[in-house]
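Onboarding guide, step 5: your first structure request.
Type a short instruction followed by the sequence, for example:

Predict the 3D structure of this protein.
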Amino acid sequence: MEHARGRIVSDAPQYRAVSVSLSYDPVEDPQAVCFSFPSGKEWTFPREVLESGLNAPVRRGDIEIWPCGRVQAVVEFHTRDGVAVVQFDAKTLNRFLRHTYAAATAPHAARAPTTAPSAAAAPPEEASAVTAPAPAAAPATRPEPAPAVAPEVPPTHA
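The system replies with structure tokens like these:
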């Protein structure tokens, strides 16, 4: 488990910081990562979605991830109440991914049930960035995100 600082993106003039716990369990589910918010809301999704989303826009289920410039990444968490948009430093997410690969190759992870080995399960060669193949069909242009709603984070009034 690691902790990351994200910024909730909304139409407010300033970003609001939020602590997000990033976790990975190579024994329980070696293909998934989990983002947990202080409210207790969690999103578990395939690690490959996070990895691919750092390089090109990708959406799977209620998670959408895309790079934002050279040093940021945006993660959208979709609920029936709206969309929470959180911006992270890409290096924080890349570091987390490197740690998940290290944990997956640790001796205790060898006891985990495995599926057929794939290239995505191999540790990245380059220590400074995690690379992945681009998704099959990335949109040519990024549509405007839906209005940000963060139901798990109470609004602050100044």
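Each response can be followed by summary notes, for example: Residues 112-158 have pLDDT under 50 and may be disordered.
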